Amino acid sequence: MRHILLLLFFVNLTPTLSAQTIYSKAYGKASNPAIIFVHGGPRGNSTLFEGTTVEALATRGFYVIVYDRRGEGRSIDTTATFTFKEAFADLNSLLQKYNLKKVTIIGHSFGGIVSTLYTDAYPEKVEQLILVGALFSQQETYDHILSTVKKIGIEKHNNELLARISAIEKLSKNSAEYRKECYEVASENGYFRMPNPTAESKRLNEIYQQSEFSKSNIRNDLAPIRFYQDETLVNINTKPNLKKIAKHGIKLFALYGKQDNIFSAKQLNDMQNIVGKTRFQLIDNCSHYPFVDQQKAFLDTIENWMKAK
Question: AB hydrolase-1 domain: from which residue to which, for each copy (predicted)?
Answer without folding.
Answer: 33-293
